[in-house]
Amino acid sequence: MSSVIERSAGDKTGVVIAGGGQAGLQVATSLRQGGYDGPVTIVSQEPRLPYQRPPLSKTYIKTDAAFESLLLKPESFFEKNAIGFLPGEQAVAIDRQAQTLALSNGTSLSYDHLVLAVGAANRVIPIPGRELAGVHQLRTAEDAEHLRAGLADAQRIVIVGGGFIGLEVAAALRALDKHVTVVEAADRLMGRTVSRQVSGFFLDEHRNMGTDIRLGAGVAAILGDKRAEAVRLSEGTELAADLVLIAAGVVPNDGLACEAGLATDNGVLVDHHMTTSDPQIFAIGDCATFHSPFAERLVRLESVQNAVDQAKLVAETILAGEAAASIAPYRAVPWFWSDQGPFKLQIVGLTAGADHVEMASLGEAGKLVAYCFRGDRLLGIETVNRPGEHMLGRRILAEDLVVARGEVAHEDFNLKAHVAALKARG
């Protein structure tokens, strides 16, 4: 696809956005909605218009859905809003003194403001045999399409990694009646993101779906001549495989920033307005590390919510000009979701540091609410198929409402009534 709107090199009156995902598109959209009339250009390494990534690991791989169903905006949107879009181009270097961004085609773009929305890349783990045909990863629509094509002749699937992506794919493939084995090196599923109680729930449910889950299992090698035929575990067991998916997490794309001398720490370091150590450069989304008041530490979040909210803040900051210092610091409540078969996991807050989890007694199969505390402070709420409690959790964290451990522990505790009582008391 050719550029929708081209931006001439040397034009130094606008905003250049490196990254054509949801975060980058949201910056451009919010700038135009806010009345910004200077040039806005998105540089995208992928040769496609911006699209949704969450469906890739679920509906997209198990149906014949067209790519167009994933698009965030049609091509006409870019034309109507005079947003330059340069597909299939990689940002390769930043000259901070000259305020230019060099591209892989040998040209460069001048900027007043540069936004790094370059996302993350799949973690590369040194497994012998990972170069064999039939070994896949999943990050882009192209990855998903290759995976979908490979599934046509594959019945035995081994997934390396028991995080969100691995488990979402496992559930999708069980719905296609594939034989699925998930190999996870840790002692539980989704260990970085949810409590042990919720991990245990999903372990049971995935096994009930018919998925073979191997915990505490390392991968020694992927075996085969030209194509993957088996996965050998560290303890010697060999799992027959027609197709292997490596879903071992991601790492931030912070190399561009690092080479430009910007501060990094597991991502590009930004302040409460998403500004990097260079005041003309912002970083947002999966590549940005910032201090979260909800975790009281530096974090890097991989979620649609975080990408969109940070993008809106950057646009607001650019639009404010010299008054940018008066804009409220970033304090969007973090929330996440994962659809795994019939189970919608929703998380509000950052619950990884919890030292106490109180499970609500719902008496309903396939549903749960887990209140996660550190000391007496509610860090967040994890729910399964309970959207009402999830939405209340967002309100609780956004408004700093108090939910005490002792109250939650009561069998008759009702979150909706509790929030209503708190609001009534003012």
From TrEMBL:
Transmembrane segments: none
SUPFAM superfamilies assigned: FAD/NAD(P)-binding domain, FAD/NAD-linked reductases, dimerisation (C-terminal) domain
Alphabetized InterPro entries for the sequence: FAD-oxidoreductase/Apoptosis, FAD/NAD-bd_sf, FAD/NAD-binding_dom, FAD/NAD-linked_Rdtase_dimer_sf, Reductase_C
Protein name, per record: FAD-dependent oxidoreductase
UniProt keyword terms in alphabetical order: FAD, Flavoprotein, Oxidoreductase
Domain FAD/NAD(P)-binding: 15-311
Domain Reductase C-terminal as annotated: residue spans: 335-417
Pfam families, per database record: Pyr_redox_2, Reductase_C
Listed cofactors: FAD
Keyword Flavoprotein in record: yes
Entry superkingdom: Bacteria
UniProt organism field: Jiella pelagia
Keyword Oxidoreductase: yes
